[in-house]
Amino acid sequence: MISTDPKVLLETPLELFHKIFELRSIRSPLVIPELEAIIDREMSGFGTAQHEVFRSGNDLLNQFERAFMLTPQGFKFHFHWVEEQDLGNGTTLIIAETRITIPLHDRTMIFNPVRISAVFQKKNETYKLVHWHLSFPDSSGSDEIFPGSAQPVQYENVTVVFTDLVNFTQVSSELPPDVLVTELNSIFSRFDSLSLEFGLDKIKTIGDSYMVASGLCQKHENHARQAVEWGKAVLNFLQQRNLTAMHKWDIRIGVHSGVVVGGVIGTDKLSFDLWGDTVNVANRLERFSAANRINISAETHHLIKDEYKFEYRGTCEVKGKGPLVMYYVA
Asked: ∠ CA 15-25-14 to the nearest 5 degrees?
């Protein structure tokens, strides 16, 4: 809640703007009173989506409350940019562009880019949100239901990354199930954060295996570099975590670049997945990696050969492909 104690520093419009999204990211409607403290009941605004048309602060709060019920896993926001303009007379305009990720039970929805404008006015020594406008991308643009019910899509330039915790099977037999799940949640939650930070799309986890892709929904000038940077950040995170954590973990990482097909199959518990030779090779590269190393293919090496130092490893045999050239990222 915003304090009325004059000794407490007044929260700025920019801080309140980010606070709205931080609260919206939480999975509980219990944060409604905190949102209520920010929003002027007499505010005006409108959204481009049918379910977001509103006329007052009450309408917006009701929309937030419904959304909390419909999206129990919360929203995730990744801002591309935020700008603040002082309009004078205690009024501030904030405009921004963000990517919104909405995890649902049967799919994940991604809207990118979503443009936002918000106007805050100083009232009774606090700033209040008095205008709010969201503009979602139209269906012909980059708005993508990911996954959705459409036909599978071929992605031409993608880098796929697989990770696997070393000796997981042995360690998992020695740990109580609740401790094991807590460990995986702690590690994979950080992987999720790094995926957002580096612009990668999480595909799935299978046990202790974590799969991400670069260049899928978010296009990068060099998707291979973003994937390797993500891998290096993962290694650094685990290295730092192992300094103080009770349970130490090592990890193998495999990276390959190429063409993939993405989509949803089946009728129950739907989830987006990737298929194709690129996925199979990335998985095999992970298996041939050593602990705490990033093992990449010749195709990925070709894309980033001038940006890193490498250790040539020779080849491994891949079923259906024959010898596969491998490199470690130094």
From this structure: 10
Number of domains making up the chain: 2
Q: Are residues 113 and 257 in the same domain?
A: no
CATH number for position 256 = 3.30.70.1230
CB contact at 8 A, 282 and 255 = yes
> Which of 44, 48, 206, 199 has its CA nearest to residue 132?
44
Asked whether the whole model's pTM tops 0.70, one would answer no
Strand partners, 108: 103
List the end-to-end C-alpha distance of the chain, in Å, as a whole number: 49
User: Domain check: are 175 and 312 in the same one?
Assistant: yes
> Does residue 153 share a domain with residue 301?
yes
| CATH assignment at residue 123 | 3.10.450.50
Give residue 51's domain range: 13-144
Q: Indicate the residue among 127, 144, 161 that finishes a domain.
A: 144
Q: From CA 1, how far away is CA 35, in angstroms rounded?
A: 8
Last residue of a domain, one of 144, 179, 207: 144
* Tens digits of pLDDT across the chain (330 residues): 334 444 445 789 999 999 999 888 887 778 888 988 998 877 765 544 444 445 567 777 777 777 777 677 778 888 999 999 999 889 999 999 998 887 765 567 778 888 888 899 998 888 999 888 877 765 433 334 444 445 678 898 999 999 999 999 888 888 888 899 889 989 998 998 898 889 898 888 888 999 999 998 777 779 999 999 999 999 999 999 999 999 999 999 999 999 999 877 665 555 678 999 999 999 999 999 999 999 999 999 999 999 999 999 999 887 778 899 999 998
Q: How far, in Å, CA of 233 to CA of 242, rounded?
A: 14
Give the CA count within 13 Å in the CB-facing half-sphere of 297: 29
Q: Are residues 185 and 131 in the same domain?
A: no
What is d(CA 41, CA 20) in angstroms, rounded to the nearest whole number? 15
Residues 265, 321 share a domain? yes
Residue 217 CB contacts under 8 Å (≥ 6 apart), including other chains: 110, 112, 144, 146, 201
